Queue: 4 jobs
Job 1
Amino acid sequence: MKFRGNRKQVLALNTFVKLVRCTNTVSYHVHKHLQNELTVSQFGILEALVHLGPMSQKELSEKILKSPGNITTIINNLEKAGLVTRILSMEDRRYYAIHLTEKGRELIERIFPVHAEILFNRMSVLTEQEQQTLGKLLKKLSIPEENDTGKGK
């Protein structure tokens, strides 16, 4: 069944479908090299820790856009693999900071340059100006509207 909204609704739906398809395709190709070593979420956590330093599970869940419950499972698996460790804060005994282990740092420092090169190659189909424009458009699209109620404009 084809959606039969007005012209603006059909355009919005078609644009959204293209955005999702593009995101899924690019993500698949950019992350394919990880499949034998890490999940995309595990990579995201290690990448955040190597570039931003230790942080709490809550902060990590916000950085990689995963639920706190999901983050717990991912961190448990990374900890079992010896890639991260939880360290209890001396100031606040309710707070654990997630730290990279030496093994985790070595892994992400080996994998990240490959990842960055793949990402660079994938994005190079766009000119620098197109990348800047796309970045601005995506940022604009990412800002939640006050009236995100499901009601059309």
Job 2
Amino acid sequence: MRVMKIICPECGVKATIKKTNRKHEQLSDIYCYCSDVECGHTFVMNVSFSHTLSPSAKSKNRIVKDLISWLTPDQKQMALDLLNNPA
């Protein structure tokens, strides 16, 4: 698993994330500090969702679950019968 690497914008040395403030489900402020004690720079960076490369398999399951929740009990039974006895 890869971990996001933060670089100090002042000196170019690795920085550490001290705190994350989630502003929205797709936007966070990350509070960082430089690991070089001589630099001592502390700063905030924004991390945001950009785009999907491969869709989540879970989202398909959620769609099916939502569709089933809207069915009447008779329609749910019909769907179950069709799944158990495909033609």
Job 3
Amino acid sequence: MSTRDIPWIQPLKVTLRAGMDRTFGSIYETLDFLENEWPQKRGERYDHAVLTCRQGLNGMAPTELAREAFVAACLEAGMPVVTTQSLHHRQLAHRLSWARV
């Protein structure tokens, strides 16, 4: 597997079963969570997410496909997901708000 990480365009915030929120900003971070911290119950969408994240890191699948597969796996496991703004987007919005003053 490639060691280079590939960031999502927009991070994902997942509400874990314990009620805590966790933000995922890249394929590698997501794959690590899937392989090492995923809740016990695994399903078809979980398997697909692991496969597409591995393929994404190796350049064999589009980044967005891996991201969508992760979202589907989270929903299958009963963990709500929302898209968050990336740090770049937040900084840009802040700069634009100051430019209007």
Job 4
Amino acid sequence: MTSTVVYNGDLRTTCTHLKSNSAFETDAPTDNHGKGERFSPTDITSTSLATCMLTVMGIKARTMGFDLNDIKVEVLKIMKSDPRRIGGIELTFHIPGPLKDIDEKTKAILKNTGETCPVMKSLHPDIAIKLDWGEWS
């Protein structure tokens, strides 16, 4: 098993990673009867795309002899209705100083690595993904 999820009532859950025992809570969003005080399940899905991209890019960078410390990604989740679902995810990358100047070949390798991460490959093709690479565009 990977994790457990316990429903706590009031549209909240506690999710526990079994190997590390680390946990986080979820809440329904305000536009769907919740308080919006925690990540919603769809927030987690959208945010997982950014974390997966950065993780595999970090692995690739490590094998190339450097690290990607301090890259930041802003995540925008776009919901659709009928049926209610994630309609789009927009990721905006902010590249810190020293990484702005890496060569074009390395940028292309890292971008391709991120764009082929497991979460990207797992998302439904109807979800519109927009990537803004910022300083690497």
